[in-house]
Amino acid sequence: MNFINKIELNSSLWGCPDGAHMLAVAALAEAKGQILFVARDDARLALMRDALARLAPSLDILVFPAWDCLPYDRLSPQGALVGQRIETLARLASEPAALTANTIVLTTVNAFLQRVPPQSYFAESSLHITVGQTIEPSALATFLVNNAYLRTDTVRETGEFAVRGGIVDVFPPGHANPVRLDFFGDDIETMRSFDPSNQRSIGKADRLTLHPVAEFRLNSQTVERFRTSYLATFGATASRDALYESVSAERMHPGIEHWLPLFHTEMVRLTDYCPDWPIILDHEAQAACVVRFEQIADFYEARADSGDDGSSPYRPLDSEALYLGADELEELSAKQHVCSLQRFAAPDGSGSHQDAGGRPGLTFTTAMARGQSAVVEVVEAMQAEMTGQRRPIVIAAASEGAAVRLDELIGEQMGPGHVTRIDSLNAAKPGGIYIIIWSLDAGFQSDQLLVIAEADIFGQRLSRPQSKRGKGDDFLREVSALETGDLVVHAEHGIGRYDGLVTINSAGGDHDCLHLVYHGGDKLYLPVENIELLSRYGSGGSGSGGSGSDAQLDKLGGAAWQARVARIKGRVRIMAEQLIKIAAQRHTAKAEPLLATDGLFAEFCDRFSFVETDDQLNAIQDVIDDLASGKASDRLICGDVGFGKTEVALRAAFIVAMAGYQVALVAPTTLLARQHGKEFTERFAGFPLKLGVLSRMTSTSDAKQIREDLASGDVQVVIGTHALLAKSLSFNNLGLLIVDEEQHFGVGQKERLKEMRGDIHVLTLSATPIPRTLQMALSGVREMSLIATPPVDRLAVRTFVGPWDGVVLREAILREMFRGGQIFVVCPRIDDLQRVYDRVRKLVPDARILSAHGRMPAAELDDVMTKFADGEADILLSTNIIESGIDIPSANTMIIHRADMFGLSQLYQLRGRVGRGRQRAYAYLTSDPNRILTPQARRRLEVMQTLDTLGAGFTLASYDMDIRGAGNLLGDEQSGHVREVGVELYQEMLRQAVDAAKAGDVKDDEDTVVEWTPQINLGLEVRIPEAYVPDLTVRLSLYRRIAGLSDMSEIDAILAELVDRFGTMPDSVRNLFAVIEIKQLCKLSNVEKIDAGPKGLSIGFRDNQFANPEQLVGWIAAQQGRVQLRGDHKLIIKQTLPQASGRAPVCKGIVQELVALV
């Protein structure tokens, strides 16, 4: 059936919001035949490709992507991407008659505007091979070399080939796997595809077409053509260029593709390959063309104006040689039919406009406002739809796992059989409800169809990683993998050695168990569902003995472990008591609840010019709850640079100050204090609050006045450096202390911060908190909110590591200047500034450069920073004084001179100064080309290049903690305790002791429970089979995660993830989840053990105790003899359960009844 209005090609097609535009393109392609679709960018192309594969499976889809490098770049595009381009061009050039009537070419604006080799190139550079054909292996090898294939020993990547006697392996572009040709003499005897990872054959073939790997060839003819054209274009002196020399020697050169026209007699347009095909333009594609024209012109000018600073020169070709211009595009539009898609309905009053009928979809705001999934609302809407228009209802899931879970959730509300899985939209019928895998950010509707996206139901995609708040033990278990030979700690049996994962048959069912070896060779097999009883002895490379031999293995069943644990518990309890002299006063002492004034607070929040992320909103709510709790709080806000920590502090400060208390914000540097002062002043303008800034930039008279006003209460908010920590400074009524980047304060300053904490609220902001701060947060001494979600439209900073290269850096500076941005150039020492200034001035003589360092007079430094922030300079050359908190959204390129001299945290913080807006940012970490880096420096730079994703600050701090050890809260004297029981168990003991102290619950050491877990024996196979998850490390990681699940939302997410990653779950994995659910219920009802068999089941209570004995007796009596209480206090339930598969739901139901009795 048709899901949109009947449409014809026109200059504009209206009624095509996102999602509906995919249906429109599919309908036009199926109705009109061969079509060229131009997507706005790569992401839109990928969405269209995936959608068409499911919406219109009869279409023959060809993809033509753009190069993934900048115009006039020194980098070459990726080989796999070039291979895809060549595969499409070759099919269009050599097989036009073989193309189906419903062929559609998907490309992007950038690819569409780029010229391509002529069709004749593929006729000259393609080779068709069949089984039985005669061709000399040496001639084949020559052809491959001439067409840019790389000869290797083993073929693994696209564009490689290998010759071993009578066998030739080759990996042509556009193929999913390489092909192995087996020769008998000069005859091709067999042809087989093979897996490049293990080199094993996986299928047979009888024909193969070899296309060139690159969009040019390096042979004597093309090299001569290049040499002649290059010298004719750039002059005789160009013969000394590295590019010219490489090509003359028939060698590839980085970025050689940007001189592609010099290898060909002519260059053509993509449309010359499909001259009569209609062109459909994506939303905003025309605007993207304008942006691309400007970008091409900017980069050409940057290259053309570049001088010779001793590096290899870059001689750019005219843009007309490589790209289409605006005039040519307009001329093309007159020749071929061009149709632009429009999101909105057609304008009224004209019947000539084509309207596909697509409109925005339904919204489910009630559940979203409560932070819940909208499954119930969606079901109600679908039921109303089924009694009304009876349009097909299609639920679009982004992944297989999400589709499975959505099916289950909707089935729970509507009952089974209401939802049908479909692979193609053509299978949807009126009045039906369907689930299809289709990646959409929002649903849409037409008169003929209703589409509900996964994001409409959950607020975000179910399959996306969720940021979780975990206890310290959860986190520590995540950061280190368990390997055979590692020392581990069992909560009940002590230190043993992990000796691998084994499968044991118990009561008729296979169980995966961890094999543990103890003193004297004693063995213990721990079922994987009880893996939470296990912890690592060390912290994975921290020096704590993760796999070392410095710890004595305990004896199974011996008393030494229990005695040792009891002794450590006592010492940990004393340590916790010392901690709460400062910490517990805040948690247990009463404080006046501080509530946000609804109207004024909303007005203040409205001044925030960005959209808050979910994590940011959660952190803000955490702080609001802290302030309203009536207890002094101490919270760590850990969020990556530029993720919005300051906004959390602003809102907290507003609430406290408006409630009549004072707020102090302490920053580590004068520049950061100045910036905070400026931001707070702007945001607090118009409210009845007085602000002050105390730093070395504050005049003596102003500083004196601010101190007096703080003492009298006339200043409500003060921002400053360590001057605020002076004991001589007194506050009238301090209510909130905000500490920014605590890791930059010295030991004495940190001790002063501890003293100040007392009974006030404390908020610490940090992107890379020091390990001790992180451990305290994980221990529960300080609460932690994690902001791991980047702001909307934020892009990761692209990081380049290498020696100082004047040409590359000049290009980087010009690139930033041409897009109206600014550049940071950072040096490790003040002495380096003048030398680097001279080099930068030589690279870009027209740039406006300012210098700044920490020894400048305060007024001069303030003047420099103000000018740069106001856009009066292009480049700020400075030391690392800009490391903390400087926020200049227009500065999006950073060059670090001698990056090897900075520490890891410093490099991360410095890089965080760029990329704070919506533009792509670049960081160049350079080193001295004449010096050999130390292994440590090289490792730091490698880590920086690895941590190139948004939100890596917490990862960096955790990585640092794992390398250096978790540190200690009160001193080194406690390190022996860690050695005696292991870092994870010690962490758990500390958490329990702190929790008890906060609750005022002082127990004897014997009463403090470390951990217990129910034992569930159902006779079921409970395991993740190796055939399902082959990698042992991944299986162990999954076991640890599954054992730690605590609520259904987490179970939903990991169920979806498993199906996505590994396919349909076998019964043994579903059994594992069933056991985990039963275990959670058992803990609530104090059930320690369940044994189930064909005749029923027995239930044992922990310490033979049940929380409500009278209710239990009444429940047993109501069972009419079905349930008995034996003399050993075990419940015996008589019920015939011959099939093991039926035992889990019965056990779950009974334990749920016991939970209800508690």
Helix and strand content put the structural class at: alpha/beta
Rounded radius of gyration (Å): 34 Å
Q: Approximately how much beta-strand content do the residues carry?
A: 15-25%
* Inertia-based shape: globular
Note the total helix count. Answer: 38
Q: State the separation between the terminal residues, measured CA to CA.
A: 56 Å
Trace the largest sheet across and list its strands.
Answer: 3-4-2-13-14-1-15
Instruction: Note the main sheet.
Output: 7 strands, parallel
CATH structural fold name of the largest domain: Rossmann fold
**Strand tally:** 44
CATH class of the largest domain: Alpha Beta
Mean residue pLDDT: 81
Helix content: 25-40%
Total domain count:
7
Low-confidence stretches: 367-372, 463-480, 539-550, 958-975, 1005-1010
**So, CATH architecture of the largest domain?**
3-Layer(aba) Sandwich
Name the quaternary structure: single chain
Description:
By secondary structure, the protein is an alpha/beta fold. The protein folds into 7 domains: 12-118 and 236-241 and 252-341, Rossmann fold (3-Layer(aba) Sandwich), CATH 3.40.50.11180; 127-210, Penicillin-binding protein 1b domain (Penicillin-binding protein 1b fold, 2-Layer Sandwich); 363-458, Rossmann fold (3-Layer(aba) Sandwich); 473-580 and 982-1011, Thrombin, subunit H, CATH 2.40.10; 589-787, Rossmann fold; 798-945, P-loop containing nucleotide triphosphate hydrolases (Rossmann fold, 3-Layer(aba) Sandwich); 1032-1157, Transcription-repair-coupling factor, D7 domain (Aspartate Aminotransferase, domain 1), CATH 3.90.1150.50. The chain is 38% helix and 18% strand. It has a 7-stranded parallel beta sheet. Strand 29 (691-694), helix 23 (700-712) and strand 30 (717-720) form a beta-alpha-beta unit. Helix 1 crosses helix 2, helix 17 crosses helix 33 and helix 32 (975-981) packs across helix 33. The longest helix is centred in the N-terminal third of the chain and has 20 residues, at 285-304. One of its GO terms (cellular component) is cytoplasm.
